[in-house]
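SEQUENCE-TO-STRUCTURE ENTRY
===========================

Subject: a protein chain together with a token-level encoding of how that chain folds.

Sequence line: the amino acid chain in single-letter code, read from start to end.

Question of interest: how does this chain fold, as expressed in backbone structure tokens?
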Amino acid sequence: MSEQLWNAMPVRFLEGDRLYLRPIGLEDAEFYFHKLFDPELRRLTGTQKHFTLEGTHRYIESVSTDSSAILLLIALSDGDEVIGDIALQDMDSINRNASLRIAIDSGQHMGKGYGPEAIRLLLEYAFGILNLHRIELQVFAYNERAIKAYEKVGFIREGVQRDVLYYNHEYHDSIVMSILEHEYRARYLNNNVVDMK
């Protein structure tokens, strides 16, 4: 294979049935920057800050050297279109836990099961390679689609943080959810595989 062809191929770090997860690079900064201003994505994630392209470059550079975080882009296997991102953050190797966040581009890619598939790929890596024990996430109570997706994968509601987000002139609750390694293994490695489509 020629070097030019090799360089044109996207890296498929974690591969699923319909999508794969790949590392983010500086060449993705402009795409990532524009994604940060999608109004529906900002609402669903409770994003309040504004960003600059230069700041986005610095963030991508910093996360690539941060041993407590993994940021990956979600791309469709057929055509390599990037449809979102997923991350493990605040990884704690002593207590073996981390937090997860995911964002699928609003519009045509939502509601097709891409989120659960991407989460399963990252959980397999987190529990099977990184030897983590607990993965948690927070989701705003008004994001019912995301809550259903997390429950479909196996996350369990742990509690509610009341009035934690002020957005669009009102306060909103945040739901804390988690999955433990033995729950993941019982669900996916003991012949109890749940269809993610």
